[in-house]
Amino acid sequence: MQGFKSKSDRRALYFVKVAWGWTFCLLLPFIALTNYHLTGKAGLVLRRLSTLLVGTAIWYVCTVIFSSVEHYTGSCYQSPALEGLRKEHQNKQQCHQEGGFWHGFDISGHSFLLTFCALMIVEEMAVLHEVKTDRSHSLHTAITGLVVALGFLTLIWVWMFLCTAVYFHNLSQKVFGTLFGLLGWYGTYGFWYLKSFSPGLPPQTSRLNLKQDSYKK
């Protein structure tokens, strides 16, 4: 397995590790501004913002699962070549502290996180079909800036996903990581968010038309 060796590559690796933090920080104002612009209701905005809490929970649970799988399937070795078994039931942290190399089934957290973050951004940016602001509107600059930032961030996540596919993990670990990302996305936007007892999907034309009709009456 190859890895990033230069300082810039290590910084890029750390950038990916906090991918959910970057995604969270940009989606929070984007969801708040666009949903308030379309609905004008603070309660609905807060409900939609809870998607970020759901995403955080998914990130945390999957991270714990991946760590547990690696722990229970791993062993500590004296070299990266998996030679010289040190202590079969030692955990990863103790293994590294003693200068060993832990080897287990390491589901690709990068594949999971980059897949989930990119798909979530795409789902939330679908609301742009409904958002119409002229250049003089007070929210135009803010929303435009967030759209550019989110688009750029999505490109970074896609690029880093491709780098992960080349440099890290074996095929099965990357496939499992990607499947977890797809499951997190589809389980929320493709299933749960369609239900009434959920944060809901971004505002749609049909709902907005219903709201306008009720105002006219």
Automatic annotation (TrEMBL):
Pfam families, per database record: FIT
Entries under InterPro entries matching the protein: FIT, FITM1/2
BP terms from Gene Ontology: lipid droplet organization; lipid storage; phospholipid biosynthetic process
UniProt keyword Manganese, yes or no: no
Protein's membrane topology: Multi-pass membrane protein
GO molecular function: coenzyme A diphosphatase activity
Keywords of the record: Endoplasmic reticulum, Hydrolase, Lipid metabolism, Membrane, Transmembrane, Transmembrane helix
GO cellular component, one term: endoplasmic reticulum membrane
Transmembrane found in the keyword field: yes
Broad class of where this protein is predominantly found: endoplasmic reticulum
Subcellular location: Endoplasmic reticulum membrane
Transmembrane segments: 12-32, 52-69, 101-122, 142-168, 175-194
Name of the protein: Fat storage inducing transmembrane protein 2
Taxonomic lineage from the root: Eukaryota, Metazoa, Chordata, Craniata, Vertebrata
